[in-house]
Amino acid sequence: MRTQGGDKRSGGLGDILSGAISVCSFWNEEYGLPLASQIVRNATRIAFDKEGRGLTAPSVVKELALVVMSIEAASL
Question: Average per-residue pLDDT in the chain?
């Protein structure tokens, strides 16, 4: 399944993805990379919907917890 990301790429998104990969790989070594990618794409899309072209990396960071909670809720 492909996850739609935001329509803008800003500096710092690679750092966010790298951190998400580290955490998700700790949680689950086999699925850490695709899970991290899904989380960051979803957070980027939500942040872009709110911020538009004013999107920055901190805008994405603000959405990470919400995205993780929604993924956890969907898996229950």
Answer: 88
Question: How deeply is 19 buried, as exposed, middle or buried, from its count of CB atoms within 10 A (0-12, 13-18, 19+)?
Answer: middle
> Has residue 39 got a pLDDT over 60?
yes
Residue carrying structure tokens 């919400």: 66
- Which amino acid type is present at position 57? A
How many Cβ atoms sit within 10 Å of the Cβ of residue 55?
20
Measured in degrees and rounded to the nearest 5, phi and psi for residue 33 equal -65, -50
Per-residue model confidence (pLDDT) at position 75 = 80
Query: What average pLDDT score do residues 5-32 get?
Result: 85
Tokens of 32: 């850490």
For residue 10, give both structure tokens: 């800003």
For 26, other C-beta atoms within 10 Å of its C-beta total 9
